[in-house]
Amino acid sequence: MRIPCPFCGPRDVSEFVTLGEATGPRPDPAAPDAAEKFFAYAYLRSNPAGPSEEHWYHALGCRSWLKVVRDTRTHEIESAALAREGAR
Amino acid sequence: MSKPMRLSNGGLLDRRREITFTFDGKPYAGHPGDTLASALMANGVNLVGRSFKYHRPRGIFTAGPEEPNALVTLRNGSRREPNTKATTVELFDRLVATSQNCWPSPRLDVLSVNQLFAPLFVGGFYYKTFMWPASFWEKVYEPAIRRAAGLGMVSRLPDPDHYEHATAYCDVLVVGSGPAGLSAALAAARTGARVIICEEDFRLGGRLLSEPHEIDSMPAIDWVARVEAELTSLPEVRIFRRTSVFGVYDGGTYGALERVSDHLPQPGLHQPRQRLWQIVARRTINAMGAIERPIVFGGNDKPGVILASALRTYVNRFATAPGRKIAFFVTSDDGWLTAQDVLKAGLPIEIVVDARAHVADALTRPLSRAGVRVLLDAVVSDAHGRPGLKHIEVRKDDKILQFEVDVLAVSNGYNPQVGLTTHLGGKPVWSEECGAFVPGELPPGMQSIGAAAGDFALAACLRAGMQAGRTLASDLGFASAPAAVPRADDEPCAVSPVWYVEHRGKAFVDQQNDVTAKDVAIANREGFRAVEHLKRYTTLGMATEQGKTSSVTGQALMAHLTGRTMHQAGTTRFRPPHVPVAIGAFAGPHVGKHFKATRYCAGHDWALENGATMIEAGQWLRPRWFTKPGETDWFESVTREVKTVRAAVGICDVSSLGKIEIHGRDAGAFLDRVYVNMFSTLPVGKARYGLMLREDGIVLDDGTTARLGPEQYVMSTTTGNAGKVMQHLEFCHQVLWPELDVAMASVTEQWTQYAVAGPKSRKVLETLLGDRFDVSNEAFPFLACAEFFWGDVPVRLYRISFSGELAYEIAVPANYGDSLIRALMRAGAEFGAVPYGSEALGVLRIEKGHVSVPELNGQTTAADLGLGKMLSKKKDFIGRVLAERPALTDPDRPSLVGFKPVDPGQRLRSGAHFLAIEAAATAENDEGYMTSVTYSPHAGCWVGLGLLKHGAARIGEYVRAYDPVREGDVEVEVVSPIFVDPEGKWLHE
Questions:
Q1: Looking at the domain assignment, is residue A29 inside a domain?
Q2: Residues in A lying within 8 Å of B, measured between beta carbons
Q3: A87 pLDDT higher than 60
């Protein structure tokens, strides 16, 4: 699999670390239902068969965290953007 | 040396040179250009080994990597390699090969008695025959079966060769160099695109090396040479010979194995044996060709029965044949073309049998005119002879005719090589038109052409190649004027496959695994009808050949038995690797010490000079202890080091701990969010112990973080977690809080850091620093930090302690690290300073009750470790919300306490589980476990840290530390985890 890092260009997957599905944004810790929200944030994944938004870290490259849309059926990468740009 | 079966002329051999080799100890000779199989054949050796299950005599069945039978053990000693296919081994001087699975020889094989027990070895036999009594399986049946069945033996010696990994990039990858592949490569290359062409043979040309075609009015072989010359002249073209593309991976990535020196007696100096390529291609042309199919009839595995296309290769390319009385059993036009070539080579043909009633005159005429007997609408039902083929039975109009022959060439149409097309999940589809499975959905960027796509005729292959090469290159923006398609004729290639002929003897579907037509029938009877079930129940299509000659035939038989069409039956999915790849090639250079990087501290040389025994800590090498003259074991050295630190002073390399610089206006706010405790309020010039959690509330890491400036912090992490923490911090910043003005960089390797610990540590630093820096207790109290310059060298000084002693850590840029340790030791000499290693470090921290890696084990909360009070209530931080979950705040959770054996002479073991004194050793009674133990010179006995249910409330109680694995069952007293200086006075002195 190759991931088109916005800084480094298309690079082999072995340079990256994945954290799995991007479940963000991080819930508001002051909300009255923070406990349930954080539980869902930390543990619940939708695990789609199809395009999935994931966090990948270019550990052996520019150290950017990326938001990657990957089709879990084909490993086709639809997009890869810097996570900071898409962050809330 | 005489080669009885070598034709007097022809072949792509260098007849001026002779290569000698041995097979089963007997010397033979061949020529450059030969494979081991062709050289054996030329020498009249047709019996090459014995089969897997029944030990039936077997010969050479094919001329390529699809060979199921001619498996030999190549070379000897540590380079011995079993199960190599004689048909793909390029002959080299002094080659040594031996036959397999037979004793004492392939001709006289004791275990051929297995054939008498054949009824025991039918499909699925290991699931039923040897089931009772159950206890016999492991001890009696399996070892006996493994001895009797099986292939070659491995050397059991370390591999003396080395393997490389390499990566290549191209616009167009062409797999295969037959007429389709060569013309595609040429068309793509002429546009200026970067082209890689991979050919598994040692010569380009594919079937053009074996078939006497004309292209552009010249012999095909000359056309190949001309194309090869043009490709070689183009700067963006790379030609990989002896290279098999074995796997398709995501994103246009291909795995390929280059056999760099397998054709040499041994690799040259500094030359790898094989090179594993990762080829990244924007487009791929799959021109891997097709493999001819056998026919299932009685005795179809006899040495002498051979695929017609293979016979054509042996005759035309290698100027040899396995016999002199040749028969053909064909269902395809292509078989007739082979017969014509054999005739042209001057070899006598006894008979050509075609199952079809009608065959074009143009095909039959040259043979009948030469007096060859031709039988249409007839089949070969059985082949006989021992060990090799002696005669065949032909059935025509219900009459049986006998013919004495020693070669039977079989032609039943071709299976396109669809292997690579299925690696990403594509399914081949049955084409009635081709009578074969052709590629279905292809991997992205791949196009199959020529025989690999079911397009068998020569002119069509050349045309498809020229077009595909040009189109794919132009997709990528490389344009060129259309070039003329090489001129050639389309040869006839009709086929009406016959999968199975009524017979009497044993008829094999898969020769490599000894799977017979009967086994397929049994699988059907017992309900294993799906192709994937059929494969697993009978082992059809397994082992080195991976069903290249057998899968489709087996599926056809099953389709027939179940009344399904080929389309309904479908085919099994092929997975990488397409050809066997040595594990050594996958490992590549990453073996032994090269498995991972080794990181050396700046003080490494100094440590070795001073008697250090090193230990791996993550990737780092750290001194474990320093042996002084006269010391005989590690315990003595470590105990001395610990005692010296407690009584005087010791110096320890702590450079491998992670160091992360954190800068920015919001650096303090950022740290407040990642640590459970406050850092924004930490004054400049102060350090603080920090604890960080994962978002799920479990402890991630700990360490000391110092504030060197208003917007500058230096964080330390444990050695093992440095990378993980860095990744975590980057995540927090980039993903969670990109609005914070903060930046970070790992500086672990940039700084060398030494701990100077013990009551005399201040004196050592005073001596070292003189008036450059005031280290008095007043000027530089506990938890102070500072950065200053020694000349133009920056020095960082921290008053922090991991040992419980008065202690400092001093850091300099790594290139001054060696000077620093030498200077420290000089300064410490008069105070009795000794270096200490990681073992003593561990003893000191356990005595002080500090947690470390065994306690930060991914299962513990801050409260478990007695650090619950650190969790700030004034702010949010990572893990705060989920750390409050009921299960993580359950008072029943084991928490950190110390332990001492009741009998001070007894040893403690980490990993021991705690039980109430009278409780039975069951999982229900488990009350926690020991995490760290050490012999404590201070306490004069072993002490331990551990996690115990209600630990803090049970100080003074007694429990058992139960360790059945090492037969430990020690009564221990629950004590405070702090064994030295519980009030922490020493730190402040």
A1: no
A2: 1-2, 10, 12-13, 17, 19, 24, 26-27, 29-30, 34-35, 38-39, 41-43, 55, 57, 59, 63-65, 74-77, 82-84, 87
A3: no
Which residue segment(s) compose the domain that A78 sits in?
2-24+34-86
Please give the interface size between A and B, counted as residue pairs whose CB atoms are below 8 Å apart.
74
Helices (DSSP H) in B234-300: which residue ranges? none
Tokens matching residue B65: 């990597």
- Predicted TM-score of the model (pTM): 0.90
Q: Is A63 a domain residue?
A: yes
Which CA distances in Å does B562 have to B398, B428, B556, B558? Answer: 26, 20, 10, 6
- Sort B727 into a burial class: Cβ within 10 Å, 0-12 / 13-18 / 19+: middle
Longest dimension (CA), chain B: 116
Chain B residues with CB-CB distance to A84 below 8 A: 734-735, 738
Evaluated on CA atoms B78, B34, B348, B8, the torsion sign reads negative
Per-residue model confidence as pLDDT tens digits over B524-559: 999 999 989 999 999 888 888 888 999 999 999 999
The answer as to whether A47 is a domain residue is yes
Backbone dihedral region of B219: left (phi > 0), alpha (psi from -120 to 50 degrees) or beta? beta
User: Residue with structure tokens 């630190």?
Assistant: B645
3-state secondary structure of B615: strand
E-strand ranges in B259-372 read 274-286, 290-292, 305-307, 326-330, 349-354
When scoring B730, B735, B889 by the number of chain A Cβ atoms within 10 A, the one with the most, hence best to mutate, is B735
Say yes or no: ipTM exceeds 0.90: yes
**CB-based contact B47:B303 (threshold 8 Å):** yes
In-domain check, residue A13: yes
CB contact under 8 A, A57 and B727: yes
What's the pLDDT tens digit per position in B82-122?
A: 999 999 999 999 999 999 877 667 776 666 666 666 666 66
Judge contact between B645 and B638, C-beta under 8 A: no
Structural domain count, chain A: 1
Residue entry with tokens 């006598």: B348
What's the CATH code of the domain at A56? 3.30.2270.10
Q: Please report the domains of chain B, with CATH numbers, ordered by start residue.
A: 1-156 (3.10.20.440), 163-288+442-475 (3.50.50.60), 599-656+751-844 (3.30.1360.120), 658-746 (3.30.70.1400), 890-989 (2.40.30.110)
With contact defined as beta carbons under 8 Å apart, do B671 and B687 qualify? no
- Res. A88 pLDDT band, cuts 50 70 90: very low
Average pLDDT (B733-757) is 97
Distances in Å between the Cα of B747 and the Cα atoms of B647, B656, B732 are 33, 11, 19
